[in-house]
Design a protein that fits this description.
The complex is a heterodimer of chains A (169) and B (67). Chain A has 169 residues and is mainly α. Chain A folds into 2 domains: 132 residues, no CATH class; 34 residues, no CATH class. Chain A is 64% helix and 7% strand. Chain A has a two-stranded antiparallel sheet. Chain A has a two-stranded antiparallel sheet with strand order 3-4. The longest helix of chain A is centred in the N-terminal third of the chain and has 27 residues. Chain A is elongated. The mean pLDDT of chain A is 83. Chain B is mainly α and 67 residues long. Chain B has 2 domains: 32 residues, no CATH class; 35 residues. The longest helix of chain B has 26 residues. The radius of gyration of chain B is 19 Å and the shape is extended. Chain B starts with a helix and ends with a helix. The chains are: A mainly alpha (169), B mainly alpha (67). At the A-B interface, helix 6 of A face helix 1 and helix 3 of B.
């Protein structure tokens, strides 16, 4: 039986990342739901690889420590192993890779929020980019007319097939 | 269009527009507060007149098309 706990947590992490990262958020609100699963899997794979690499390169065998005056901390690898043991004591789950999966889930939300800070990932630009690239014509006309500087240019009059009028400002 | 090019266009587009006043919900919908739109009575009169005028034009044209 496949280890569902190892795939479900990164998959959930990938989903959380896609939903909270501005650049992907508005796009995924506009596409079919089944595509979201594949995109979540793709992000889950990238996040898992990232977590494994960071753990392997920077944490696992890192013997660096911090010394401030007479105070000296333990090595980075010591805290990494301590964290690993503590998690093991709490969850009693010793499958290899489970803790990395848990970290993928835990970092997905803060990572998305952190990336949103950058100027090119701001909400208004991401929304405009999504609307212009993937939005329908109705979305585009409402969004672009509402953004007009002159208020008179914001006016829209829509006519339905039954000759009813809708005035939109 | 690449993201850099799109961002450059967006900055130019945003500089002379009201995009900054539009609020975007987490659900992907958006709106502008009515105080940003209807703060001046004279302007509101102009909006209504402009809408009435376009409605009149539409009715005239549809009459011509039907006759």
């Amino acid at each position: 039986m496949p280890r569902l706990d190892l795939i479900l947590l990164p998959l959930l992490g990938g989903y959380i990342f896609l939903i909270f990262f501005n650049r992907t958020r508005f796009y995924h609100q506009r596409i079919e739901k089944n595509r979201l699963i594949y995109n979540s899997l793709f992000v889950a794979f990238i996040l898992t690889a990232l977590v494994y690499l960071i753990d392997y390169i920077f944490l696992k065998n890192n013997n660096y420590y911090l010394k401030v005056g007479k105070l000296q901390t333990r090595e980075v690898s010591f805290y990494r192993n301590l964290f690993s043991i503590e998690i093991g004591n709490i969850i009693h789950f010793s499958t290899y890779g489970f803790k990395q999966s848990l970290i993928v889930l835990l970092i997905s939300y803060p990572l998305a929020k952190f990336l949103n800070i950058f100027e090119k990932n701001k909400e208004d630009f991401s929304f405009d980019y999504t609307i212009n690239k993937w939005g329908n014509e109705f979305d585009k006309i409402i969004w672009n007319s509402l953004g007009e500087k002159n208020d008179l240019d914001k006016l829209l009059m829509l006519t339905t097939k039954t000759n009813k009028f809708i005035s939109v400002i | 269009m690449g993201i850099k090019e799109a961002y450059r266009i967006w900055l130019a587009k945003k500089a002379n527009s009201d995009f900054g006043k539009i609020k975007i919900n987490s659900s992907g919908s958006f709106y502008m507060k009515s105080e940003d739109l209807f703060d001046n009575k004279e302007d509101v009169k102009n909006y209504v007149n402009a809408l009435n005028e376009s409605l009149k034009k539409y009715r005239e044209n549809s009459k011509k098309a039907n006759s």
